[in-house]
From TrEMBL:
This is GCN5-related N-acetyltransferase. Residues 3-146 form the N-acetyltransferase domain. It holds the Pfam family Acetyltransf_1. It comes from the Bacteria. Gene3D superfamilies: 3.40.630.30. The keyword Oxidoreductase does not apply. GO terms for molecular function: acyltransferase activity, transferring groups other than amino-acyl groups.
Amino acid sequence: MTETMRPMTVADLSQIVADMPRYWGERDMRWGHMFPIVHEFGATCMVADSPEGIRGYLMGWVNPDHVGYIHFIATRDDARGTGLGRRLHEEFARLAAAQGATRLKAITGVVNTNSVAFHTAIGFSAQVVEDYAGPGEARVVFLRDL
């Protein structure tokens, strides 16, 4: 299946939140899917759209230090293993570089072994940073130069 990569809209985010279990299973990740991100950073938030709906998405932006930060990336349960996550990353890297980014960054929880495996497989370095999310809240920080 071929998806069309396009900028995320507020309506898309509403649909993603409504279908959250298709992307995140039992994890309730609604807390981080904030509509102002789409309003303010819409040029670097994207969906992979198909006739069957949104099969994946990435929310990210370029910070003042020229780092393309990936806030969320997810593929729908029926799109896993198709290379869609890699294609979303490639499109974000292209968009971020066009805005002056020289590297990419993402974070995840230490227990999220699937995210660690995915990000290292697509060329990110991974480092556990203690207290990254507050006292006693370690995170895995991923970095990749563009």
